[in-house]
Design goal:
Helix content: 10-25%
Number of strands: 74
Low-confidence stretches: 1-26, 28-40, 582-587
Number of domains: 7
Radius of gyration: 34 Å
Largest sheet: 6 strands, antiparallel
CATH topology of the largest domain: Neuraminidase
CATH class of the largest domain: Mainly Beta
């Protein structure tokens, strides 16, 4: 809006009102000045999210609250104020109410309220899947209103087997139990005017941070008939077509056909598709249909599309927002500690938390914030052995550099490095405090001279970075681990600072790692995985190696004896106690030079007499070797109740001993007098010479670890940090051809408008999405997380009998009550409840058919619930049962889904074909595979179903089982007949896939076909195979994942990514058949395998007759 004084000029007033400087003229000037000042104070804002439009008003979410503004723009008004998220506002058809998704009462639910504001009414109570990752989108997303304005359409993950999926549901504004919409699965949906049809996307991936996606989950728009369940596909672009909006004889939708999401229109009469908008910088996001307009986001602004003229206008909006969630404040950051290091004498601890460097007293004094640098990420802080300085890595310049600062915080910090570009890791002081070793993102191991600030490259990692290194006590050698060969076996190297040469000292036959020198420089201790003691499986003859790690000492000097050489007391020799006392007196003195004889070094190894196990964290002080002993684990978690133990081996007593259990980390002071231990949320200082640790004494008081937090500065740094992480660690240094600097410049300006952590997650997600790559996930961080309202679930479906105004128990979901995750409350022994029984009361509260039963189960998930039930509608027949509820029904839905599929296969094949569903390629999926395979492998056929497989890393383990080939037979005296190899399937197979077969769920079917195990049946898979690993959190504890490696074929071509795996037999699921309980893909798989069994039977020979050795 332009404010021009000519509009209220002196001449105007004189001509039409009369008189110079009239009273009216002064009023006009005053009003005009107010308008100018208002415009100056309230500049135009951005990041208006999830908008909707009515006849005369726009609603949107900003900073997690719902706001409304006149359709022409101007000053907006906030109508919700909860600390949780309120998103997806949708006006009712008459414009008088707004439905939205909110977090007022704990979990995310559907609410509605008057357009002018007021108290919201909660309409949903079922928790569904209460917490999912950001990329899956929130629960109970409001989609639309029915055209009559009586009901609200929303998407819920209740009643589904997997978090990928969601059911569309309707809830009446008067309340009551939501009803399932008559479509199997769905995403964003729009009604036809007569409510007989919908335009919808069956696939919901609208929160994914993956632009220009063309894999199997690429969305299309369909028209679906709500009476016949017939559907028609109206888009066929290989990429994304989503967000349909039905307006008269057109269906508008979003599409990335030009590389950016823009609005298109499908003409229902002609079938023609025309492009409506043409944005090239930012994507059109979250378009929403109103009576005369479509409103949408672009670059954080809102735009209106006139449905008649198809003209687009930007809406200028200002806010009188207090931006409470990003106001600077003092916060305690003791829960954000990411690194810690003792001072040399153990009197203080340096800790890195939320990007700041603190020192914390062991007993007396204040906690000091040494850096006080909001918006700068300081990390990897370590105290110098001489006690004068603290080193850390800081991105103060916009890139990681090495800094030191005086330990008392006085004076300025000193920048030591001129790295320029790239992530830096793990600075470690030399014992003389003159040098610092560190690593960088380019796999270099570097040594920095503190005085000259010169940097020397000690070595370069040939496969990965070098992150495992330690100094010799004379500061002249660096021991480290790297992968030097084509194998994945680690070797230990020594780097000499005297001659700048590197020496490989272990041969690479076994994994050797964690090298540390002893205090006197006589030995190099290390771990090695060389204890081969195979374990065999319980269901099959196969092997695995666990507890392989042993502790070893390498004798550095050719003339030094083994620490375990035989000893004999002789007259005239110094006693051991005298020798020990002298060592104690000299423990702070470092040797000026140690002697290392490289030749024959690997042959001078001895094993420390510690039982092999799973060890890490090796440290040596004086006569002790400290290390972590980890509990034996399966993929699903620890076996038994053993805790992680901090142990030490006493070299003098030749004895291994427990120091403390249930420990997460530790560190030792430079003078070896103190040990710092992280146990749970406590940090504890003990004497390092104590025989056993004490968790009750020496606990650090972190109550004063406060900092002045400027979240806006923090947001700026985290955006920069995320951008750099992708630049430094993305598997393709060419960034998939994207101009990464240009992407920084495109999205960085949005950060200053972020008023909620949710905004920053969105912006970084948009940035990451530009790589057009799988597994670019963004989430977590410091945002308000409402406490769950703990709704109790009974494992049943409720059915209303309006004739008697009561609810009945509907389907009771089967479970396995001996397994906690599959416990079905109403099927447990002693519970007399059956399908069809009437429910009169829940915990003494009357339940009637117009109510929502889950509203009476709020805050009861962790307590016994009393039901008053009856087999009839006569309350005189009622009795009470006490039920132990559950808080998540999704495992029951999955279990029953699988059992239903198994029953279909059994029925169609007369029991000749086995059915195995693998839900993911992690521990759960592998366990599910094993539970099913071992009792089905003797069937004539197998159907391996990896539809809805969420991925992981174990696909090759399952494939190893399936591709075993029977080459021989064996038999005994009685009925036993076996195969060689044992537990080998000998029959025909097929693999079911769909668009939800993801990541390692892509990889499994690809190699299933490569191995020739059988055809793939269904639909093209997700197409995301560029894997990720763990990484250090962002400054506020959030995360970004950086894809680190993709898959390519033996022909040297990249495979699967952003394409997926094509089926051999394509079968698109018919929603009409799915609604009838049919599964066309599964039926086709049974048909195929049965045909193969009939035409190409795979039989094994019977046991031959008794051999007659007399005839040989």
């Amino acid at each position: 809006m332009i404010y021009d004084p000519a509009f209220v000029s002196h001449e105007y007033c004189e001509k039409y009102i009369g008189g110079k400087m009239s009273y009216v003229y002064k009023i006009c000037i005053t009003i005009f000045m107010i308008l100018i000042l208002s415009g100056a104070l309230l500049a135009e804002d951005r990041l208006f999210r999830f908008p909707d439009v009515s006849e005369d008003m726009i609603a949107f979410s900003y900073a997690g609250d719902i706001w409304t503004v006149d359709i022409e723009g101007g000053l907006a008004r906030k109508i919700t104020t909860d600390r949780g998220l309120e998103i997806f506002p949708k006006f009712s058809p008459d414009g008088r109410s707004i439905a939205f998704t909110g977090q007022y009462d704990g979990n995310t639910h559907v609410y509605y309220m008057p357009t002018q504001g007021g108290e919201p009414d909660r309409l949903t109570y079922h928790p569904a899947i209460a917490k999912t990752s950001e990329r899956m989108g929130p629960e109970h997303v409001v989609m639309d209103w029915t055209p009559d304005g009586n009901k609200i359409l929303f998407r819920s993950r209740r009643h589904v087997l997997d978090v990928w999926l969601g059911r569309l549901m309707l809830v009446d504004t008067a309340g009551g139990l939501p009803e399932e919409f008559p479509v199997p699965y769905g995403g964003f949906t729009s009604f036809s005017s007569d409510e007989s049809q919908i335009a919808y996307c069956p696939v919901y991936r609208d929160f994914r941070t993956w632009k220009r996606y063309k894999g199997g989950m690429a969305q299309d728009v369909y028209i679906y008939d709500l009476k016949t369940y017939e559907q028609k596909k109206i888009t066929d672009w290989v990429g994304t077509d989503n967000m349909p909006m039905w307006a008269g004889n057109k269906i508008f939708f979003n599409s990335d056909r030009t590389g950016r999401l823009n609005l298109y229109a499908y003409d229902i009469n002609s079938g023609q598709i025309n492009q409506v908008t043409d944005f090239t910088e930012y994507d059109v996001r979250w378009p929403s249909l109103g009576p005369k307009h479509i409103v949408f986001e672009n670059g954080g602004y809102l735009y209106l599309l006139d449905l008649t003229s198809e003209e687009v206008n930007k809406i200028s909006i200002t806010l009188g927002a207090d931006r409470e969630l990003v106001r600077p404040e003092y916060v305690n950051v003791s829960e954000n500690i990411i690194d810690y290091s003792l001072s040399p004498d153990g009197k203080r601890v340096v800790m890195g938390a939320r990007g700041e460097v603190f020192t914390v007293p062991a007993e007396k004094g204040n906690i000091r914030n040494l850096t006080k640098s909001n918006g700068v990420y300081e990390k990897y802080s370590v105290w110098s052995p001489d006690g004068k300085y603290i080193v850390y890595v800081s991105d103060k310049t916009g890139e990681d550099e090495i800094y030191i600062i005086s330990q008392d915080g006085r004076g300025d910090e000193i920048k030591l490095s001129t790295n320029g570009e790239g992530w830096l890791f793990y600075p470690r002081w030399s014992p003389d405090s003159k040098k610092i070793a560190f690593a960088d993102a380019n796999t270099n191991l570097l040594i920095l001279n503190v005085n000259s600030q010169e940097v020397t490259v000690a070595d370069i990692g040939e496969k990965t970075g070098i992150y495992d290194y330690s100094w010799s006590p004379d500061s002249r050698w660096l021991a480290y681990t790297k992968l030097p060969d084509k194998t994945s076996i680690r070797s230990i190297f020594l780097y000499s600072l005297d001659n700048n040469q590197s020496y490989r000292i272990t041969p690479g036959i076994t994994n050797d790692y964690s090298p540390v020198f002893d205090t006197d420089g006589k030995y190099l201790y290390f771990f090695s995985d060389r204890n081969f003691n195979a374990e065999t499986g319980g269901y099959e003859f196969n092997f695995v190696y666990n507890a392989m790690t042993g502790t070893y000492a390498m004798i550095l000097s050719d003339g030094e004896r083994s620490p375990f050489a035989p000893e004999s007391d002789e007259v005239g020799q110094e006693s051991k106690n005298d020798e020990k006392d002298q060592k104690q007196d000299k423990r702070k003195e470092l040797p000026s030079k140690i002697n290392i004889d490289i030749e024959g070094l690997s042959e001078r190894e001895v094993q420390i007499p510690v039982r092999p196990g799973d060890y890490d964290g090796l440290e040596a002080i004086g006569g002790r070797i400290y290390y972590f002993s980890n509990p034996f684990r399966g993929l699903s978690g620890p076996k038994g109740d053993q805790k992680r133990e901090l142990r030490y081996f006493d070299m003098e007593k030749k004895k291994d001993q427990l120091f403390m259990e249930d420990v997460a980390g530790f560190g030792i002071s430079a003078d070896h007098s103190k040990i710092l231990i992280k146990a749970g949320n406590k940090y504890i200082i003990n004497d390092a010479s104590a025989e056993k640790g004490d968790q009750t004494s020496g606990v650090l008081d972190l109550s004063g670890m406060d900092m002045y937090l400027d979240r806006r500065a923090e947001y700026r740094e985290m955006f920069d940090d995320a951008w750099r992480r992708y630049r430094d660690f993305f598997y393709d240094s060419n960034m998939h051809g994207v101009d990464w600097q240009a992407m920084y410049e495109l999205y960085k300006p949005l950060v200053k408008y972020a008023s909620h952590r949710y905004d920053l997650t969105y912006i970084i997600g948009e940035l990451a999405g530009e790589l057009a790559c799988s597994h670019t996930y963004v989430g977590g961080g410091d945002s308000y997380e409402p406490e769950s309202d703990k709704v109790a679930l009974l494992g049943v479906e409720f059915e209303a009998d309006t004739s008697v105004n009561l609810f009945q128990i509907g389907k009771i979901h089967d479970g396995k009550n001996w397994e906690e995750r599959l416990r079905s409350p109403l099927t447990e022994p002693g519970i007399r409840a059956e399908q069809g029984y009437y429910i009169f009361e829940i915990d003494g509260q009357r339940l009637t058919a117009e109510m929502n039963p889950y509203s009476l189960l709020v805050n009861k998930a962790d307590r016994i619930v009393t039901l008053k039930i009856s087999p009839t509608a006569d309350e005189q027949d009622a009795y009470e049962v006490e039920v132990d509820p559950i808080d998540n029904e999704q495992p029951l839905w999955y279990y029953n889904w699988v059992e239903n599929k198994r029953a279909i296969v059994d029925s169609l094949s007369d029991g000749r074909i086995g059915y195995i569903h693998i839900p993911d390629m992690g521990s759960f999926g592998l366990n599910q595979f094993a539970r099913q395979f071992y009792h089905l492998y003797k069937k004539e056929g197998l159907i391996i179903d990896v539809r809805f497989n969420g991925g992981g890393f174990v696909s090759q383990l399952a494939l190893d089982r399936l591709r075993r080939v029977v080459v021989g037979m064996g038999a005994g005296r009685h009925d036993w007949v076996g195969t060689y190899p044992s537990v080998a399937f000998h029959g025909h197979m097929a693999c079911l896939i769909n668009q939800y077969s993801c990541s390692d769920g892509d990889i499994f079917p690809y190699y299933f076909r490569e191995y020739g195990l059988g055809p793939l049946i269904g639909m093209r898979t997700w197409g995301g195979v560029i894997g990720i690993g763990g990484f250090r959190p962002l400054m506020d504890g959030g995360y970004v994942t950086v894809p680190g490696g993709g898959s390519f074929s033996l022909e040297g071509e990249w495979i699967m990514e952003n394409v997926g795996v094509e089926p051999d037999i394509e079968i698109e699921q018919d929603p009409a058949l799915l609604m009838q309980g049919r599964d066309p893909q599964l039926e086709r798989a049974v048909e195929y395998v049965m045909e193969k069994i009939r035409t190409e039977p795979k039989t094994l020979p019977d046991k031959p007759g008794p051999p007659d050795e007399r005839k040989r």
